[in-house]
Design brief:
13 helices; 450 residues; Dihydrodipicolinate Reductase, domain 2; Rossmann fold; alpha/beta
Length: 450
């Protein structure tokens, strides 16, 4: 009978403990990376950011890629060829590659049965994150899950509880957390040099796409559309709900608020050391796109109220120039100056006319970022798994908090009223808002209970 390497490790540790020899087991003997001392990874959701993440994993010597999973066999077959090429290049560069041809799956549950796989990258549409993340952790896998962590308030709390229950390493794909210039900017904000920060702005103005109206159509060959829908409501196939455009429909995602917003709001909250807001109000609509092209707004402004400051979120689809001439970013507006940071770098603009004069601060010229955040984020995850350290740069608690804030903004928009959040009760003061906290799963899928 074949014994898996994970079971061999567990049995060995039990024997050592029973013989009073546990102190003789080296600390480096981890149950998660015995295969040539490497981390074995599988990817679920191969088309977009999931594959971008996988590229960074492949680039690391201590990582082996064993399996790919996608409900679209066209994507799956293409990515299999892409991975084979990347692994051949890796081998050509002098690195040992044990799994040259990835195993392919249409059902992620089959991938999770592979005992050789230590960690799973989750790059699916948002509405699938919760089920796959919890199933993966239950199967003994560590997870690198794309942002937002989950698609509803309740699901975020579920995944956070599951991470604690299963004691697995979780890294949410908020990779700016591993980019040094963002860390430097936050250190400056935390120093207090800006004075009292009374308003934080975060924004994303994206003109690199426009959504065009499309009619329902037959399901493309090779696509398991029913599985793609999963727990979401049964609907006819439409290209606008599939692949990249899923993010503009409430069943699967939350528009720019939970796409780019999760990245920007993450640092708005981090800079202010804030949790969840007391109240939220949001306004916007379909101001530029024709009716029927999207469900999420193409223009949205949201005000989150905290104890000593307000957080203003802005987004627009089809507009490039945001505040301070930046497509995206976060601005901390203090009594003595404003710090502005985006993916390109950060700077500080002082309040030059502030009285008294001794409070005038020095400008900080634009400091360019290195642009290696995703690479460093993946390295941080791999390092934490190998050392069994759950304190990643973006653990489930951080991912859940910012995703919940984003969802609160969308709930306020959908309700059309100012709403108040009770963080102890985990409820709003508005029953229509409360109805949007927990999703209804389509049979046969079940909302997990943790």
């Amino acid at each position: 009978m074949k014994t898996s390497r994970r079971k061999f490790c567990e049995n060995s540790l039990k024997l050592a403990a029973g013989a009073g020899m546990i102190s003789l087991v080296p600390a480096s003997a981890s149950c998660t990376n015995l295969f040539n001392n490497k981390l074995v990874v599988g990817l679920v959701g191969c088309r977009g950011q999931g594959f971008a993440n996988l590229r960074e994993f492949i680039a690391l010597e201590e990582v082996e890629i064993k399996a790919l999973c996608d409900v679209d066999e066209n994507v799956l077959n293409k990515r299999a060829k892409d991975v084979e090429k990347l692994l051949a290049d890796k081998e050509q560069a002098g690195f040992k590659v044990s799994f040259r041809n990835p195993e392919l799956y249409a059902d992620y549950r089959k991938l999770l049965e592979d005992k050789e796989i230590d960690a799973v990258i989750i790059g699916t549409p948002d509405h699938w994150h919760t089920l796959i993340a919890i199933d993966a952790m239950d199967a003994g896998k560590h997870i690198y899950v794309e942002k937002p962590l989950a698609n509803t308030l309740h699901e975020n709390m579920l995944v956070m509880r599951a991470a604690d229950k299963y004691k697995k390493v979780v890294q949410v794909g908020q990779w700016q957390r591993s980019d040094q210039h963002w860390r430097d900017a936050m250190k400056y904000v935390h120093s207090g040099v800006l004075g009292q920060v009374r308003l934080v702005k975060a924004w994303a103005y994206m003109n690199w796409f426009r959504v065009k109206r499309k009619e329902d159509s037959p399901v493309p060959d090779g696509v398991d559309y029913d599985f793609w829908l999963g727990p979401a409501e049964k609907r006819p196939f439409n290209e606008n709900r599939f692949h990249f455009n899923f993010r503009w429909y409430w069943d699967y995602a939350g528009g720019l608020m939970t796409d780019w917003g999760v990245h920007m709001l993450d640092f708005a909250l981090d800079g202010m050391k804030a949790g969840r807001p007391k109240s939220i109000m949001s306004s916007g609509g379909m101001f530029s796109h024709p009716s029927g092209t999207m469900e999420t707004p193409d223009t949205q402004q949201t005000i989150f109220e905290f104890d000593k400051f307000n957080l203003l979120w802005e987004d627009a689809v089809g507009i490039e120039e945001g505040p301070y001439g930046r497509q995206h970013g976060v601005a901390f507006m203090g009594d003595w100056g404003t710090l502005i940071v985006d993916r390109n770098g950060w700077e500080v603009i002082p309040e030059t006319n502030y009285k008294p004069k001794e409070k005038i601060i020095e400008a900080v010229p634009f400091t360019k970022g290195l642009g290696v955040g995703l690479r460093e984020h993946v390295k941080n995850f791999v390092s934490c798994v190998k050392s069994n350290d759950r304190n990643t740069n973006a653990p489930a608690s951080i991912g859940a908090n910012v995703a919940m804030v984003g969802h609160m903004g969308n709930i306020a928009y959908r309700v059309g009223e100012k709403i108040y959040w009770d963080d102890e009760a985990k409820r709003f003061n508005n029953e229509r808002a409360n109805a949007l906290i927990t999703p209804t799963y389509r049979e046969p899928w079940k909302l997990p209970v943790i």
